[in-house]
Structures are given as structure tokens and as C-alpha cells.
Amino acid sequence: MKKNITLSRYLVEQQRVDGLIPAQLRLLIEVVARACKRISHSVNKGALGDVLGTAGSENVQGEVQKKLDIIANEVLIEANEWGGHLAAMASEEMDSIYLVPNRYPQGEYLLMFDPLDGSSNIDVNVSIGTIFSVLKKPEGHPGVTEDDFLQAGAQQVAAGYCVYGPQTTLVLTFGDGVAMFTLDREQGSFVLTQENVRIPEDTKEFAINMSNMRHWDEPVKRYVDECLAGVEGPRNKDFNMRWIASMVADVHRILTRGGVFMYPWDKREPNKPGKLRLMYEANPMSWLVEQAGGAATNGRERILDIQPTKLHERVSVVLGSKNEVERITRYHTEA
Ligand code: AHM
Ligand code: MG
Questions:
Q1: Which residue, of 14, 60, 122, 200, has the greatest Cβ tally within 10 A?
Q2: C-alpha of residue 105 to centroid of ligand 2, in Å
Q3: pLDDT classification of 1: cutoffs 50, 70, 90
Q4: Cβ contact 174:14 at 8 Å
Q5: Atom of ligand 1 nearest to the CA of 243
Q6: Where does 205-334 sit in CATH, by number?
Q7: Could you give the dihedral angle defined by the CA atoms of residues 195, 297, 319 and 117, in that order, rounded to the nearest 10 degrees?
């Protein structure tokens, strides 16, 4: 790999040399990355920046908002609304879509994000992140409505996340593999640190919140029981478990060394399909995972094929190393 390729250079080359991305999309990703840099600075300041603790409000899903949830949301909106590349945005932290104000030019893209994923980890200094997904606004009518956002994940034109951990790492796909960039604070830019990210097809590591075990469906219980049985069980190998409670950090580990991540439907709230949100959590992560050779399903069907019916739709998630995801999906269809 060539040395010191900044994100800007990488994006210019993707546009110019490979013709993979249009100029407006390049600009959009540059702006999102700049916003992530700002969020990263706020995260790093912690108590010194008065960014910890709750904001005293709730989002549309009835979850208590942290100060950083709101700060990150505002940073992303302010950074993206004036550049002329977007038609509208949607966020975990906003009830409805955010139209680009009339005073700015309108672009052809739609941006969705979970501005600060892993909110329960903010105050305890554990990795958190920003997840984003980019769609094209459907043609043929002026203005933007929520319906324009309701496209299957397979329609995404860019997706990624930025994890704020010991390092700040931006992970991107345009549908031609996955690249990782590490923030060089001295240089002030993201620098390419890994190309052609690949997830091993097999793994001995699973991630699930075990405290919900008694609420799980039979196929999930079966899979985890078999992992726990180790070498004495039907899998003939010992498994290890990790659960960071930040999807970004769990997915980052899986992209780095393999593994399987599950946040399945469970009986706590039987009417909800799952906890995680389809449009700005599951879809971008599923595309990244597939682009790295892994798989992502809701237990039954490919997540990227699900036709969303509402902006904040929830979904059951199984993603990571291909053979494990296929096994868990088979357990569901057999049941
Ligand atoms: P958030 O977007 O409000 O932070 O919620 C999503 C997070 C995921 O990052 C993580 O996988 C999951 O919630 C953890 O949930 P739990 O606390 O139930 O284990
Ligand atoms: Mg989230």
C-alpha cells in the first residue's frame, strides 16, 4: 500500500482514476469526515468539554438523549446543510426528515445517520461512533418527502462509520470493497491504513447481549448453546464472547478479525422487530460487512433486501463471518 494517502487523495483518486464516485458524492463524504473529526474532538474532551451526561430530553424512540447525542447531531447537520450536495437528512435523534434550508442549493443525495452510536458508553469512556448511509433522491418529482428515504439498503451509494476509540477510525464503502482510515491528529487528516478489508468466513467469536437469553427465540438459543458447549458440543470448538454495547465497536472488531454479531428480535417487546434501526444502523453496517466478504440477515432474509416502511423502522440483526451467519439463518428457516 502506498504511504500517507489522505482521505482527500483517496476520494479524488476514486473519482478521477476509477470513475467510481461522482464529484458531489466525494464532497459529501469529505464533509461527513470533517464532521466526524469535530465529534472526535468533543468525545476526547469528555468532562473537560462539558459533553458528558444526559441532555434531559428524549428522542422519537423514547430513549433519553445524552449531551453528545445532540452535539453530534448538530455537528453533522451544520456541516452538511450548506454544501449543495444534499437534498435532505435523517437521524436517529430527529423525529422526521431535515430538509436542506431554501437559502442553500439542493443536491441529489439523502444522508442518514446515527450521530452517536453506543450512547450508554459515552460516560464510561468506552468506544462509541457515528454511522452513516447515503442514498440518491429518487428522480421525477420536486422536493423531498420521507417516502424518498424508504429505499432498500441495496440502493445505498455510500456507507460507513467512524469509531471513536483508542484511535479514531473511519471505515468506508462505495460498493467496491471496504477501506479504513485512521485520524492522524498531528496532520489533522484521515490517512488510509487498510484497503480490501476481508472478514474471515469462519470464526470462534460471537457477540450478543447474554442478559436477554431468556427472551430469545429458539434458533438463537440453539446457536448460542452450541457455541457455549465448546469442544464437547456439536461445533467441536471453543468459542469466545465479546459484547461492547456499541455496534460500531463490535462491527469494527468483526471487520478486523472476524466474528458474528447478533441483536435478535426477542420477547421483551414482541411487537418490535428488534432493537437496532434498519435505515441508519443495520443497512450501512450490513453493506460494509457484505463488501468485506461477510453476510448480514435478519435471521431469515438479507437485510439489504428489506423494503423499509418507515424511517425509524427496527430490525433483527445477524451479521459477520459468512459461514456463521448462514448457519444462524438456516437455524431460523428450519425452525
Ligand atoms: P444507541 O444508538 O441508542 O446507542 O443504541 C444502539 C446500541 C448499539 O450500538 C448496541 O449494539 C446496542 O445498542 C446495545 O444494546 P444493549 O444495551 O441492549 O446491549
Ligand atoms: Mg445507535
A1: 122
A2: 30
A3: low
A4: yes
A5: 19
A6: 3.40.190.80
A7: 90
Q: CA distances (Å), 217 to each of 132, 184, 199, 220, 274, in order?
A: 30, 44, 27, 6, 12
Mutate to test the pocket of ligand 1, among 66, 263, 266 (most ligand atoms within 8 A of CB): 263
Superfamily in which the 7-194 domain is placed by CATH: Fructose-1,6-Bisphosphatase, subunit A, domain 1 (3.30.540.10)
Distance, in Å, from the CA atom of 75 to the CA atom of 24, rounded to the nearest integer, reads 20
- Assess contact for 110 and 28: CB atoms under 8 A: no
Name the band, by pLDDT with cuts 50, 70 and 90, for residue 202.
very high
Rounded to whole angstroms, how far apart are CA atoms 117 and 113? 9
Q: List, as one string, the DSSP characters of 210-250.
A: GGGGGGB-HHHHHHHHHHHHGGGSTT-S--EE---S-HHHH
Question: Average of pLDDT values for 92-120?
Answer: 96
For residue 63, how far is its CA from the centre of ligand 1 (angstroms)?
A: 11
pLDDT 10s digits, 50-93: 889 988 888 877 888 889 999 999 999 999 999 999 999 999 99
CA distance 113 to 103: 23
Q: Which residue has the higher pLDDT, 140 or 7?
A: 7
